[in-house]
Design brief:
single chain, 217 residues, Rossmann fold, eight-stranded mixed β-sheet, 6 helices, globular
């Protein structure tokens, strides 16, 4: 593996080990501490990992070419601040959202929402977005099945009919999102061609990208 993150891989493995034991760790640490740890590890390690490279080299360029009207990326950090450059801002509007007001500095200028994704309905009209990218949110802020289902319901309401949802998640941290009750009721697996509907990585068996289409309300 020739990835920049290789040097930091011991840190990354420790973080994943801790995250998989979230039921033990989370009650002992305040959410701010968990978020700070995740941010530190992500900035140092994620940039060169295969799943991050796939996001930047395959997913975002494919979405830019597909001609979707509005795309929402949930969760802003220093390493996501350049994602808006993939989109021209006219034929495709790139929006961001994060519950941390301080993260706005890394969000899309003029198109950033400071909100919990579960409260997204209060900020945009129904059917506003064509695509929602939810990467690294389940397990790192939205941590239990009721909250995950609540998130899916909120996203479904702000997606246009047939709109697309991408969920990037880590095995062992949260249940498989495709098995959530609201996922079965509100979405169905569907790729954004030429990308597959389900993408895992031989180099990292934990991270997965799953693509879905919103079912009619």
């Amino acid at each position: 593996m020739k990835y920049e993150a290789l040097f930091f891989s011991p840190i990354y493995r420790v973080a994943r080990w801790a995250a998989r034991r979230a039921r033990i760790v989370r009650p002992l640490l305040p959410e701010r501490s968990i978020a700070a740890i995740h941010h530190y590890v992500a900035v140092r390690a994620l940039g060169g990992l295969p799943e991050r490279r796939y996001l930047e080299e395959s997913i975002l360029p494919t979405l830019a070419r597909a001609g979707f009207r509005r795309i929402l990326f949930v969760g802003c950090r220093r390493y996501t601040r350049h994602y808006g450059r993939y989109f021209d801002g006219e034929s495709t509007e790139y929006w961001t959202a994060d519950c941390d007001a301080a993260a706005a500095t890394w969000g899309a200028p003029g198109r950033h929402l400071v909100c919990d994704i579960r409260a997204i309905r209060a900020h945009v009209p129904a059917g506003f977005f064509d695509v929602v990218l939810l990467n690294g949110v389940f397990g790192f802020g939205v941590n239990d099945e009721p909250s995950m289902n609540e998130t899916l319901a909120a996203i479904h309401d702000v997606l246009a009919p047939g709109g697309r949802l991408m969920v990037g998640w880590d095995k062992g941290i949260v249940p498989d999102p495709s098995g959530l009750s609201y996922m079965g009721q509100l979405f169905r697996p569907k790729p954004i061609e030429p990308l597959p509907a389900h993408k895992s990585f031989p180099e990292n068996l934990e991270h997965v990208y799953d693509f879905f289409a919103a079912l009619p309300a």
